[in-house]
Amino acid sequence: MYFLSKNILLCCALTLSGCGSAYAQVTYFADILGHGFKQATIVQPSDYEGSVTCTVIKKQTPEKSDKAVLYVHGFNDYFFQEEMAERFIEEGYNFYAVDLRKYGRSYLANQKFNNVRDLSEYFADIDTVLTIIKNEGSDKILLSGHSTGGLILSLYAAEQNGKEMFDAILLNSPFFDLNVKSVLKKTAIPVIVKRAEKHPETTISAGLSPLYGESLHKDAHGEWTYNLGWKPHIAPPVNFGWIRAIHMGQLKLSQGLQINKPVLVLHSAKSIEEKKWSEVMFTGDAVLNVEEIAKQAQNIVGQYSIQAVQGGMHDLILSRKPVREEVYSTIFNWAKRNVK
Length: 340
Description:
Helix content is 31%, strand content 19%.
């Protein structure tokens, strides 16, 4: 009831609709994070599940700046990384994040969490927030995407050639390949993709271990606090439509994506496959195959660099402090050269 009532309240207060159009004014409310963060719910055109919204979250620099970063979260996720936001603000970036449709702050009662049938559905949310950022005075924009958000931004950037509203792209452990055994990629995935054309709502387990979530959350073994209703340790089942959307997006990447802006791809130096809890969970990527990330990243056509991070977890900026300090150093040194 909390999620539903909050979104209805904000949707009623904010009569914005459409995608990619210019907004004269956006009405912000205090965000759930507090500490000066603000949010606004944007009403988007309805889809196959009914009403749709996305949510922009922001915190601006104390001194006026014409630079901004837009952060796009991953699967089974939403924006909660305050430390990351503060680090960008310290570097002179107005910070913006978007909770994509059917995730986190944007989830509505008529929806299935994380549901999507084509990753291009998210492009309207990105267009909307980029337009808002431009209208609010930031002309130099860094796009930053984690995991599924990294795949989405890569596809989005390739679609924007010649009409970009951004200057560079940072990809944090992008979801460039399904982390399943090769035999399943050749047998089960094609069957699911075909069936998804007529039965997209058929569900299947996401197959993710709860250990990664437990390595992050303060109530388990981690150091971070976030809403377990929006980012549970065990992800909700996905449906065939979701699998097809991811597969088709990754297929496009494998065929080559022309991106005309600089791209930085960061990933952990190793993948880990722990069956029970251990400190090893803090030393590698427990979600994706990092070798495949590096391999598939080479299908980007344009100016890109790929860097492995020793000791990095799946979400690199949630790694242990010495590691994430290295990650921030890498990001901001690269950004100084590419966001001007």
